[in-house]
Design brief:
homodimer, 11 strands, about 15% strand, 11 helices, seven-stranded mixed β-sheet
Chain lengths: ~350, ~350
């Protein structure tokens, strides 16, 4: 199934920004939010870009997300802060909090910010790229509504809880790890359902907690599983990482944790308990020159990257990639050829265009 | 194969401390190093306790590790430091650097320390427990000599590069994640070889980079694989985590990274290049009350832990554990019943006893 239509990314960016403005988001913040969605589309992460505009729009239009939040620091030390996002877009509270992490890194060497009362923040990788551009090592995490079972559990208790870490290099591109802590994203289950295909063992369990190859069984009350899949292959490790993300993002900030993180969807039921405010993010920034001369560090990073690229390839492969390679390669193509948009998303955008009067060109 | 003998842990602790002293380690540092080995034995991590004494002893006796190091801070900011371990035991440089991370957290909210010119530091989990005891969230990582192939690589390029994160709770025990970033530890390959058994697919590759179920094929020029095992199950994620540990521990500090980390063994060949000094560690500490009232945080941690324990169990299991449960349960048993020591390790200890005159009682 090819794309229904292809757009140059600036056209989608303009549309997103104007839609955000239409539902009350101030101009500068609307453009920032659109920047993050465009970063996702350009980097080839179709699930987190313009495809999510509909949900952001629905939640803003319904008053579930505050279009004009005033995020504030509720506690801080020289190298840390806790931020209340005032129930704004994560696409606004996220960059605001990440900026504080980077500013603290400027003065204290490192900065670490936990955020509550916020919403979906787009791709985790966007934030660490901001740090990388300032010769910092960037960290970004967020919790999200439940979809993943802990190892040996039969029900959804944790989100896909991504971790991103970005590291600047010299002549080589930066290393940008951006990974969910479950085996695969829910999007791959959706694709298998749409195409009527089985999924590999090790991606999901059914509603009884048994491993399944039927994507519908995962979807109907089953769950994704943590990175590592099962006990024998280290599923307890992926579960532990997902839990660490939940604690740093939500327990530390005062957001809703675990199964109580609110859904990013208008029509899904709210969790049975409220144990905090909104969802939570966690950002970190460490100045490279707080640890080592920056030029020296970058030269060593280049050397390490080249050593990894020179690894003898496994059969049937071209050898190891570096984290961030696929996204950078996608961006090189998409900045020229445009962003492919499928029929379902195109229909959503058309509806939004009609409802708001913002033209989709 | 049962243990050849069982010792109360204080007897092994005393033996280790006196052996370290015999090869020139000052008394206080020798006891600290023995503390870390005992923590491993007590927590049920047989691979990292007294079983490693022989290698520490060999390297100290051969002058490959400096028994009287003077670790020093070579660069620092209010929340960060870079430490040169002066080629001492990681069991000495590690606690010294971790203490700096915690002291910086006291004054700046968080502290982050990267260490070069150091050696094997025992279990990663030991360090985060020190932070937890001070109501801090602790982080600990180390690189190690090559044993793991990057995804799509056919040769060893990275270490098993563990990550530990420790989080204090209230009435519930702390959450203590302590995980290698590969699927399984090398020790499981050794056990399979000894028992003449096959290993599961997804643990290792052979010397040509093909998945193998023969532990000898891994051992003879093959490699362990990153958490996630293969592309379909997220092996690129485990690889990315292993790389992040390598960067934070070694590139940031000026230690040897990737395939050039020196082996923890007297008889293994040294790597062909020296790209830094020794191996590297990375420690972090964040004061809980830098982010949130400590009592509030701990109450929420208890609530989260109980919610996870109440997860509906998967068939054939008693439901999810929390990270740190198995080690705590092992300690409860071993503090009463003693530490089982197998025949090979017992023979090593006997040789050390004869060579040093330190009695093993």
């Amino acid at each position: 199934m090819g794309p229904a239509r292809t757009f140059p990314w600036p056209a989608l960016h303009e549309f997103c920004a104007r839609v955000f403005e239409h539902v009350g988001v101030p101009d500068g913040e609307a453009r920032l939010a659109a920047d993050i969605l465009s970063a996702s589309d350009r980097r080839g992460i179709d699930s987190h870009g313009v495809a999510r505009l509909r949900t952001y729009y629905d939640l803003l239009a319904a008053g579930r997300i505050n279009p004009r939040p005033r995020p504030r620091i509720v506690r801080e030390t020289p190298s840390t802060a806790t931020v209340d996002g005032d129930n704004g877009l994560g696409l606004v509270a996220g960059p605001w909090a990440n900026e504080i992490a980077m500013a603290k890194a400027e003065t204290a060497g490192s900065g670490w910010v936990s955020v509550c009362n916020t919403n979906h923040y787009g791709i985790a990788g966007y934030y660490v790229l901001q740090a990388v551009a300032r010769d910092m090592i960037g960290w970004s995490m967020t919790n999200s509504s439940k979809g993943v079972a802990p190892l040996w559990g039969a029900e959804r208790m944790l989100g896909t809880n991504p971790i991103a870490i970005g590291v600047p290099a010299g002549a080589e591109p930066p290393v940008v790890l951006d990974m969910a802590t479950c085996t695969v994203a829910y999007g791959k289950i959706e694709i298998a359902m749409r195409e009527g295909k089985a999924i590999p063992l090790g991606w999901a369990i059914d509603g009884d907690g048994r491993p399944t190859t039927d994507p519908h069984e995962m979807n109907d009350g089953g769950a994704l599983v943590p990175l590592g899949s099962d006990r024998e292959h280290g599923g307890h490790k992926g579960y532990g990482l997902a839990l660490a993300v939940d604690i740093l993002s939500a327990v530390l900030s005062g957001a809703n944790w675990g199964p109580f993180a609110p859904p990013f969807a208008l029509r899904q039921a709210l969790p049975e308990r409220e144990v905090g405010k909104g969802i939570g993010h966690f950002f970190g920034a460490m100045r490279v020159d707080a640890f080592r001369d920056t030029a020296e560090f970058k030269a060593q990073m280049d050397d390490l990257i080249r050593a990894l690229r020179a690894t003898r390839p496994a059969p049937g492969t071209a050898g190891p990639l570096l984290p961030g390679d696929p996204e950078r390669e996608a961006q090189a193509v998409r900045d020229v050829e445009g962003i492919p948009v499928g029929a379902a998303v195109l229909a959503d955008l058309g509806e939004i265009a009609r409802a708001t009067g913002v033209p989709l060109e």
